[in-house]
Amino acid sequence: MAALLKAVLSASEKAAEIARLCRDAEPLFRLLVAEKTGSDRNQRFSHDFKTLADVLIQEVIRHDLGAKFPELRGHIGGEESNEFTNANGDTVAVRVCGTVGETAALLGSVLHHQRDAAELLAAAAHREVTVGDGELDGVNVSIAPGEVAVWIDPIDSTNEYIVGREDVVPQDGIAPSGLSSALVLIGAYERSSGRPVLGVINEPFHRRHPETRGWQGCYHWGIAYQGILLSSLSPPAPPQHPPRVVLSRAEAPGVRDVLDSLCGGQLRFAAGAGYKMLCVILGHADSYVLSGGSTFVWDSCAPHAILCAMGGGVVALGDALRARREGDTGTPPQLTYNQPAEGAVGAERWANRGGLVAYVHPQHLEAVLEALAAVPGL
Fold it and tell me: Which of 330, 290, 280, 332 is nearest to 310 (CA)?
C-alpha cells in the first residue's frame, strides 16, 4: 500500500502542476479564458479547453498509475471521456504517447495546431514528478494493487477553476467560492466490496508564495482498510454542538431551513462537492449535506476514504432517511463504488443517487438525519 500511496500522490502532484500550468502559461491561459467570454468557445475544436485540461490530467494519472501497476490497467475510471472531435471532424482519443513529441503532435491535432500550447502540455505530461515525504515510508498496509480500482476527478469544481477568483475571503475557514476550491481527487476502492480504501486530495491553489507569488499546493491522504486507519491529518477535534453544516447554494429551501435551525446560524455555503467534503476533513465544518443526486463516485471516493480514516464516512441520504422512517436506528451503510446504478445510462450510472451526508463524528450524522427526517419529500 505504501508504494501505491506514493504513486497516487506523485500522480496528484503532476496533475496539480498541469492545472497550475494552464493558468500560468500565456499560450494555455489564452485558451482557458475563452471559456469566460464565450467568444471563442468551440470555434477551434468541439470541446472547450477546460475540458481538454480535465481530460489530459485524467489520462496522465491513468497512464502513470498503469505504468507503475499494470494490474490496475482497465480499472482506472474518471469523470471525462477522452475523445475529442477536431476541426477536420476527426475523432481523437487523448492519451500519453511514448514520447513528448508524439504526445505534442496528438494534442496539436485537438488544439487545431496551437503548437506552443500542445508542446507545453506534452512536456508537463511526460515530466517525472516524485513526492519526497518520509512519513510515507512508515505506511505498512497489506493490500495488493490488483485488489483495488481507482476513480479520478481531474479538476473538481471546474467552473471555479476557469473563473479563477483569488479575492474570495473565507468564512470560518470555508471559501464560499474561488480558485481554492478547485481540487484533484484520486480515490481507490476495494473491487470486491466497493469500499473506499485510499484517498488523495490535492489542492493545486493552496496559497501564493509570499515572495515569488507562484502557487504552492498541498495534499492530504487517508487509508482505511480492515480496521487500519491512517491519515496525513491530525486527529479530529471532539464533537461540538450545534454542528456546523456546509451546503451548496443550490440546495433545496426546505433542507436549508431545517439545517439552518439545527446549526444555530452556523450554516455555510461553498462550491464543489470535493471542496465541501474537504472542509469537513479539515474541521471547518462538521457535515456536508446534499439532498440531490448531483454528485458522482469520482467526486466522493477520495474524500470518503480520508473521512473513513478519521473515523467518519459518507452515507446515502435517501437510504438513511428511509431506514429511519422504517424504525432502523443503526448506523447507515457507507457509499460504495463498484456497482453502477441499475437502469441508468452514461454518467448517471455512477451518480450518488438520493444525495449524501459526509461527516467525521457519528453524533453529527445522527443530528443531521434527525433534522432532515422532518423535511417532506426527502
Answer: 280
- Spatial distance between the Cα atoms of 7 and 12, rounded to a whole number of angstroms: 9
Q: Is 299 a catalytic residue?
A: yes
Q: Which among 13, 17, 54, 203 is annotated as catalytic? A: 54
pLDDT band at 48 (very low <50, low <70, confident <90, very high): low
The yes-or-no answer on residue 156 being catalytic is yes
d(CA 249, CA 354): 18
- Rounded Cα distance, 200 and 77, in Å: 15
71 is catalytic: no
Confidence band (pLDDT; 50, 70, 90) for 84?
Answer: confident
List the beta bridge partners of residue 230: 223
Candidate list 76, 155, 162, 174, residue with the active-site label? 155
Q: Which of 17, 80, 119, 153 is catalytic?
A: 153
Catalytic one among 79, 119, 203, 286? 79
Supply angle C-alpha 219, 222, 224, rounded to 5: 170
What confidence score (pLDDT) does residue 87 get? 67
pLDDT tens per residue across span 202-239: 999 999 999 999 999 999 999 999 999 999 999 999 99
Q: Are 60 and 16 in contact (CB under 8 A)?
A: no
Q: Is 212 part of the annotated catalytic residue set?
A: no
Q: Determine which one of 13, 48, 156, 160 is catalytic.
A: 156
Beta strands in the chain (DSSP E): 76-78, 83-85, 91-93, 148-156, 183-190, 196-208, 215-225, 228-231, 245-247, 268-269, 287-290, 313-316, 356-359
Distance (Å, whole) CA 56 – CA 323: 42
pTM of the model: 0.94
> For residue 207, which of 233, 232, 230, 175 has the smallest C-alpha distance?
175
Of 47-56, 153-162, 270-279, the least confident: 47-56
Query: Is 155 considered catalytic here?
Result: yes
For the question of residue 366 being annotated catalytic, the response is no
* 167 assigned to active site: no
